[in-house]
Amino acid sequence: MRAFFAKRICFLIPVIILFSGCASIVSKNKYPLNIRSTPKSANVTVVNKKGIEVFSGITPADIILKSKNGFFSNARYKVKISMDGYTTKEIIVSAKLNGWYFGNIFFGGVIGMLIVDPLTGAMWKISERAVYASLEQVGATSVTPALTIIDIKDVPETMKKDLIRLN
Question: Source organism's superkingdom (predicted)?
Fold first, then answer.
């Protein structure tokens, strides 16, 4: 009976190691993203790199994004924040290579590196946790009034007729 369990354990340990990926073990493939804007209640749409809308709503919003776009392909999202009377902001959120993916050299091996982690998407990681956009009003000027003092000798003759004398 002991030999039977010993054979099973000796079989299961290599199978678990071979058919698991390191990033899949210690990481995840979905990440939260917090979307905020000033002013609040702006429209927000999130589109993946295939052009498919994955979220539509208003700010503030908390969403979950997948880190993969396909086998060996990272996810890339365009977050568009807009509001009537304000400028539109577009922010790119991309998944980067997960450092745990290289743990397959020690755990998971070739199968984890070439199949498991790319298939699950755990080889990619979205680092951005929050997106913030400050929308500016359309037509609003951001010029700060300034006072410049110049000598009357530096004023062009064509402008001198418009000057008003102050006592």
Answer: Bacteria
pLDDT of residue 83: 95
Residue identified by tokens 């929050």 is 130
Q: What is the rounded distance in angstroms from the CA atom of residue 46 to the CA atom of residue 90?
A: 10
CB-facing half-sphere around the CA of 131: CA atoms within 13 A: 26
Tokens standing for 89?
């902001």
User: Each residue of 127-161: pLDDT tens digit?
Assistant: 888 999 999 988 765 566 777 777 888 778 877 88
- Residue 106 CA to its chain's centroid (Å): 30
Domains in the chain: boundaries:
2-140
> Could you tell me the pTM of the whole model?
0.64
Determine the distance from the C-alpha atom of residue 147 to the mean position of all C-alpha atoms in its chain, rounded to a whole number: 43
Could you tell me if residue 59 is left (phi over 0), alpha (psi between -120 and 50 degrees) or otherwise beta?
A: beta
